[in-house]
Amino acid sequence: MSQLSTRHLLGIKNLTEEDVNLILDTAENFKEVINRPIKKVPSLRDITIANIFFENSTRTRLSFELAEKRLSADVVNFSSSNSSVKKGETLVDTVNNILSMKVDMVVMRHSSPGAPHFLSKNISANIVNAGDGTHEHPTQALLDAFSMREKLGDLQGKKIAIIGDILHSRVALSNIFCLQKLGAEVMVCGPITLLPKHIESLGVKVELDVRKALAWCDVANVLRIQLERQQIKYFPSLREYSLYYGINKKMLQQLDKEIVVMHPGPINRGVELSSDVADSKQAIILQQVENGVAVRMAVLYLLAGVRS
After folding, report:
1. Which of 3, 32, 217, 244 is most buried by its number of CB atoms within 10 A?
2. Helix axes 17-34, 285-304, angle to 10 degrees
3. Domain 17-136+290-304 has what CATH class?
4. The domain 138-288 belongs to what CATH superfamily?
5. Cα–Cα distance between 211 and 203 in angstroms, integer?
6. According to the annotation, is 296 in a ligand binding site?
7. Is 170 within any annotated ligand binding site?
8. Which of helix, strand or coil describes residue 250?
9. pLDDT at residue 190, rounded to an integer
10. Which reaction equation describes what this protein catalyses (predicted)?
11. Taking CA 293 as the corner, what is the angle to CA 287 and CA 296, rounded to the nearest 5 degrees?
12. How far apart are CA 66 and CA 237, in angstroms?
């Protein structure tokens, strides 16, 4: 079996192109598994995985838990809101206490960028980053790439526009790294206040006009406005944002081609996307959710193969 070049999935940046393709190819096999009448395989029967979430999550947490159970792993769920973290316990102490119960792998979401990297240097278990602050969200980028590949075939030379709140999004950065490794061209589009300074240095195109971005791209990956991460106002109102950057059916009908619409969820309906776009046949948002389970199964399975 081909192996990943790393013991951890901390981000897309430190994966090779071969790693990305191996994960996506393995996910194809697991997608077949989860569409069978019996959806379980015994691949991780002797592995214990702890899901440690220091931030709220619905989709990612459920998706990981389902992936783990489909692989027959033993699963431990931890939420910081009702734990000793509230009493001042450090991250390393919290995780070491969990590991002393003989946990093999840790899936972690944390509000601090770099938290999984820090942890990987201090504990022996494999670590999967389920989102660290505004830094990276590698499994989301992998499932997005898997969904695009399923729809379009090879991504070499395909044009992908990432539209919305780029500044606060960990999905945007992971998507940029992942898509570039697969040979796609990437454009970011949003209000100038929601674009990071020097974003061009990542080798992406920058567009402020959403209509031009839609006319350029094969796929529009639309991101949520992350109000919970915004300490100041970056635009006058949601209504104004929707007016200038919201995507509706009429805009898509004016294009001379049919593009694919994606969204990592949760959607602010009527802000980033109108309901008639979110529910249209051009949108593959629910397919992304389904593919998320297969991709996370692939990641966990492959990491279990490089345990030391």
Report:
1. 217
2. 110
3. alpha beta
4. Aspartate/ornithine carbamoyltransferase (3.40.50.1370)
5. 21
6. no
7. yes
8. helix
9. 94
10. carbamoyl phosphate + L-aspartate = N-carbamoyl-L-aspartate + phosphate + H(+)
11. 125
12. 37
Flag the least confident range among 171-175, 268-272, 281-285.
Answer: 268-272
The answer to whether the annotation marks 87 as part of a ligand binding site is yes
Q: Which tokens hold the place of 303?
A: 């990491």
Rounded to an integer, what distance in angstroms lies between the CA atom of residue 112 and that of residue 76? Answer: 22
Buried b (16+ CB within 10 A) or exposed e, 205-225: bebeebeebbbbbbbbbbbbb
> Is 60 labelled a binding residue?
yes
pTM of the predicted model over 0.90: yes
42-87 pLDDT, tens digit per residue, is 999 999 999 999 887 888 999 999 999 999 999 999 876 655 555 5
Q: Where are the domains of the chain?
A: 17-136+290-304, 138-288
Q: What is the 3-state secondary structure (H, E, C) of 144-161?
A: HHHHHHHHHCCCCCCEEE
191 to 235, 245, 246: CA distances (angstroms): 8, 8, 11
* Arithmetic mean of pLDDT, 131-139: 93
Confirm whether 17-136+290-304 and 138-288 share one CATH topology: yes
| 37 annotated ligand binder | no
Q: Say what the pLDDT of residue 230 is.
A: 47
Task: Write out the two tokens for 168.
Answer: 């606060």
> Is the pLDDT score of 227 beyond 70?
no
- b/e string for 293-302 if b means 16 or more Cβ within 10 A? bbbbbbbbbb
Question: Is 61 flagged in the annotation as binding?
Answer: no
DSSP 3-state of 166: coil
